[in-house]
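Form 12-C: Joint structure prediction
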Amino acid sequence: MTLSVAILGGSGYAGGELLRLLLGHPEVEVTQVTSRSRAGKFVHTVHPNLRKRTQLKFIPPEKLERVDVLFSALPHGATAPQVKDLLERGSIVVDLSADFRLRDPAAYERWYGWSHPFPEMIPDTVYGMPELHREEIRTARYIAGPGCTATAAILGLAPLFRAGVVDPSMPVVIEAKTGSSGAGAEVTLSSHHPERAGIIRSFKPTGHRHSAEILQELAVDGVAPNVHFTVTSVEAVRGILATSHVFLKEPLADKDLWKIYRGMYGQEPFIRLVKEASGIHRYPEPKILSGTNYCDIGWELDADGKRLVVMAAIDNLMKGAAGQAVQAMNIRCGFDETAGLEFPGLHPI
Amino acid sequence: MTLSVAILGGSGYAGGELLRLLLGHPEVEVTQVTSRSRAGKFVHTVHPNLRKRTQLKFIPPEKLERVDVLFSALPHGATAPQVKDLLERGSIVVDLSADFRLRDPAAYERWYGWSHPFPEMIPDTVYGMPELHREEIRTARYIAGPGCTATAAILGLAPLFRAGVVDPSMPVVIEAKTGSSGAGAEVTLSSHHPERAGIIRSFKPTGHRHSAEILQELAVDGVAPNVHFTVTSVEAVRGILATSHVFLKEPLADKDLWKIYRGMYGQEPFIRLVKEASGIHRYPEPKILSGTNYCDIGWELDADGKRLVVMAAIDNLMKGAAGQAVQAMNIRCGFDETAGLEFPGLHPI
Amino acid sequence: MTLSVAILGGSGYAGGELLRLLLGHPEVEVTQVTSRSRAGKFVHTVHPNLRKRTQLKFIPPEKLERVDVLFSALPHGATAPQVKDLLERGSIVVDLSADFRLRDPAAYERWYGWSHPFPEMIPDTVYGMPELHREEIRTARYIAGPGCTATAAILGLAPLFRAGVVDPSMPVVIEAKTGSSGAGAEVTLSSHHPERAGIIRSFKPTGHRHSAEILQELAVDGVAPNVHFTVTSVEAVRGILATSHVFLKEPLADKDLWKIYRGMYGQEPFIRLVKEASGIHRYPEPKILSGTNYCDIGWELDADGKRLVVMAAIDNLMKGAAGQAVQAMNIRCGFDETAGLEFPGLHPI
Amino acid sequence: MTLSVAILGGSGYAGGELLRLLLGHPEVEVTQVTSRSRAGKFVHTVHPNLRKRTQLKFIPPEKLERVDVLFSALPHGATAPQVKDLLERGSIVVDLSADFRLRDPAAYERWYGWSHPFPEMIPDTVYGMPELHREEIRTARYIAGPGCTATAAILGLAPLFRAGVVDPSMPVVIEAKTGSSGAGAEVTLSSHHPERAGIIRSFKPTGHRHSAEILQELAVDGVAPNVHFTVTSVEAVRGILATSHVFLKEPLADKDLWKIYRGMYGQEPFIRLVKEASGIHRYPEPKILSGTNYCDIGWELDADGKRLVVMAAIDNLMKGAAGQAVQAMNIRCGFDETAGLEFPGLHPI
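Section 2 - Result
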């Protein structure tokens, strides 16, 4: 039986990607998609790839009727205040904003600068990263989709922290390189093509909000990791490469790392370990992941076996947003986990 | 019952794209893919998007066993000499090279500079463009896949020539803009990134070989059109936009053109007419077609209604090569014409 | 003796380029630069390349004091109404807007949709393209800087029209490809990086305003040429390539064309004829012109010698705007024509 | 009196950039430029920006006559064996290869995998970074031009190490992002445009050869720093951004850092400190440095004042190669240090 799904806030990039995925999903039917500013227009006027794929039009959010699964792609800070309304509109809610990602209400004040309006609801939500929280997702009523750069950073590092091989006295430095679509569909001077094209520009050298998720999800036994997170913008529309520099307790060999990564991810449908001895594709590369839900992970050890460089690549709109949200829905609803997420990506691109 | 398919010359870009499409095709099984230089290697070492999608390895071409449908992606000039061998290896052959595209053997000498070794076989082949030759494709033994820039040019202009509205005393000027993947996987100075990046560079101002196909396919009642074809390389990996400047016998209005284009393409699964009054997506745009088999067509009339500018956009590796070849196979084998070609494309990208 | 110069409207891209050129010019001193929105700020906060090059700050336009040469980089339509004020502020005015480019006041209504407020002043202005109007520029009080795509189109075609070799019964089709900086520093959805990056998108298939200048400047003995002008946006920040398709009265050979082009441009400091038999740089290429005042021109004849494809490349902000304006000032003020314009451009870039 | 200069190995990218700079230099005359493979051809066939700027042709290296200053742009490993010949050909030699950058001959075996043929000459050479070795350069006979990524890393970090504020018990992680021109003019699969365009790809996660220079030049009192160096390739032709993560002995404030950086670089003509409170140009950005000799340096402190992120941007072919070499020549020959290096760079670009 097909489930009904709707998208709240469907005119942005994550909303468009959700629409693409859900229109092609074998188990669901998209019944509504909202946009306050575009209400009444065909969705393909905003998402031109969907021309001839759907005759859906945007509706105002007020007209949204109850569905089985509601995807919310509202801005950060705008979601939490209306969480009760969301729960009335969807039997299951998948929220792509940051508003229920953090377990500690105080963290919102520290990292986002606002006070959470419904801290009492946080325990009923799940951080929607299947590789770390699959079992909780299976029964969740409210799933909080992870942040894009956080997803790449966490997936690259979690096996190492869980295996206990990271030297706790040393910093882990994470440098994420990101394309322009992660900043959204809103027009700004920093996204003006003559200014944005061809840049290699620090976006957030320190204090990036996704640090909060990384600290939360990489903690082991309540001990927060010593991570330092920096984001640099580069010329690309989609794509994130998170390069993490890890100092190990004891020297390790590649075979140890294969064991650690295979141990955690061996059965994961959307993690690929990419580590070849040679060739131009020997490391993860975000551009070939455009449109896919993969997170490709590779690494390289320094000669002394004590510094490890981990590379994790994703498409920020897919595994970093809409794709991961659909994967979570698949798990929650008992569908095949890869349903609607089969696109293998393009090469060359 | 699943048909067996194989790809001869599978290490190039069109070969890789065929592999991607055929691995995801519900009606066929890829049994073999050849590459002389890469024999023995996993296909994903060359086509990294296929990692975890197939365990196929390249085999040497000599080892190719007979299949139901053989896709040949050998270089121009290298295919014709071995055509008999191809016909022994595949019950149906879909040839992506130029070697059987032209009906007139003399045209090979004029445009390609070589003499066709098997001119007697030309009548048994079909120019594999479904929109113009669907019925012949249904029964073809040997299908010649059209050239990439020719596909965009022909699809944009055919309705006008068939409708008889083009002024025969005036030239039709076609300017195709193209990305870098059309030149193939072979490394050259002109494809060296520091030289190729960011260019707006004439590739073939005159004398482009695809002119021969355009002249052939736009001819009506044996009368060759007065077309002039120029190709300019621009910064993109995939994508062609063919802009054609047409002078009309009589002034026309937009509604006349809608009628002409809908008349020919109204039922076509892979043609979309893109002509909006406003918006940044009001004309065809190749980038959103990456990975799709669409040809998007739009136009604009000059104020006096006598010059018509037609824009046709494709992904050169898809509708311009592998996608169109799979579409032809679908027609030939009685499959759903869109089987394996469902990807809607990405936005933004 | 150093002349004083000022820039009215100095926060845009042409204004910034003027500032770069004039700060490095040996014969002038930039005394003031205005910006209503940025008044009080250091110019390098808007034009970061000028950091450590000048301590100038933007001033409000009202504070502009009289200078020897006033460069006006105000928007189209905003300049004409204040022309008398401009003439009071500058002994010589170089206006980069379109407001005094056209000789025929009625043309403003046709192409720009507004009625010229001071048509009586048009005869006292000069179209500031040195290659066509050098003598008039020498004594001009008010110089109207040409449009960017018009500059490339006109410079590529003028020698042919003047030589009388163009078949008047046939259309000349001009297709200009352009980068994003020509659209200015104003933020819009069409310039939003995820939307603008990697495009091959028709900008103005018909009706582009620069058509008016092209028609005016290519007219011979009052006969307007039969030109058709289309602009396509491609991935680049700077750069225009105008590809023109010309049908000749009589077949010509390359040596005829060398004679025609050398005849008109042989002594021009900023025109280079680029036509090699081979090599990746055998035709004009805008990217290597970034920051230079060159217009590189090349051509290719069709096999029958009757269709000629002319390629003309410029940097839209230089020969297409600020550079050409400085060149005009140099002529007007009796400076070395290349003063301040010596930068040879970069390769690779 | 004009000095004579020559370029040995002038057909590569650094050679072309040297040529551009030296042709425009007021104190020198380029008398010869060699290229084995291009001998007899005009230099502008390889460096198209120099068309109409010089009538020089490449000569075979054997024909090189003695000059006042010889710039050598031969490949790494090919220079050292012929060092005596170089010293005979040039009264002063500026060598852009790596062959005399390292003080410790054993370092060549470790990092480059070959044994230095003339270790006894190393003491007579100078590491040609003016900001660190200006006095030695003034009298040097043989100047070894620094590596491109090393230049950005060293210039960004040297003030901190010299000021003694870096915690020696903690690692300094340097992540350099780089464009494609740094890999040179040699055609390879990794530089093939369809493969190279749009990448965010680890180039050398560990073991990059420039580590050797960084370790050498950041050492204080013989104590090597604890640096870890990674290079990632991104979409750009020119440009490097080195982002360094430093852990401080004691918390510092911005004013402390301004003092440290101004103390070392306050008088440097080619270092700019770029650190604004807001704006899209608040941090260093390599793209606006194209063609300039600047190294722009900025930083950001973590909230606790203990992690410092330093960003240093250069044009790899300028401050990272040819520009720094000309700067060294200027110092050595007593010219104005900025002679020939005045280009301020472009914006937008």
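Section 3 - Comments
Chain B has a mean pLDDT of 97. The domain at 149-314 of chain B is CATH 3.30.360.10 (Dihydrodipicolinate Reductase; domain 2).
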